[in-house]
Amino acid sequence: MKRAAIALVAFLLIGTAFGQTNDHKEFPTTEEITLVVTQAERVFAEYGQSVEFEASLPSAQRNPSSLENDKQVVKLSRNAALCASSGMSDIGSEILKPHPDTSLGYRILSITEKCNDVSTHIYTVSESVNALVVRTVEAQQELNGQMMDTLTKCAAAMQANVHK
């Protein structure tokens, strides 16, 4: 009978800890996670387009290995920023020619803007993911603390009943 009472107390204490709403730390919602995943998918698609556009830059044609590195999705934001920088360099080189090709300059500028936009979007998505991860860790830490408090109370109640 004592064991049944102890089990009931333990069950109620644990149930109370998990059933309480958390006013301060909340886990990300499904909608928030879905939004970040959708944003990430879009940014990957944009990045793929920017790499295709980058292939037409004069600097990419002179140094195809840099373009190959960009096709490997390792450091997206850095690669997109380098694409923008290369494009600006190509525009500068074109302007310094005795007879600059204005059409090429505008095309390079368009590619440079696309790369810069992608770099910004990648950064924004990474900040959103970071915010969700921080919220998850904080909420989990708070939940763990509540669970430890409950287990401590349960152990104390069981210990008190053992000595009776």
Label this structure with key terms.
single chain; 164 residues; mainly alpha
Q: Helices and strands: which structural class?
A: mainly alpha
User: Largest sheet, described in full?
Assistant: none
Question: H/E element string?
Answer: HHHHHH
Shape designation? rod-shaped
β content, as a range? under 5%
| First-to-last CA distance | 13 Å
Counting DSSP H or I runs of 4 or more residues, the number of helices is 6
Q: Identify low-pLDDT runs.
A: 4-10
| Radius of gyration from the alpha-carbon trace, in angstroms | 28 Å
Proportion of residues in helical segments:
over 70%
Task: Provide mean pLDDT, rounded.
Answer: 81
How many structural domains are formed by the residues? 1
What is the β-strand count? 0
Task: Describe the protein in words.
The protein has one domain (29-145). It is built from six helices and no strands. It has helices spanning 2-19, 30-54, 58-62, 64-71, 76-95, 102-162. The protein is rod-shaped, with a radius of gyration of 28 Å.
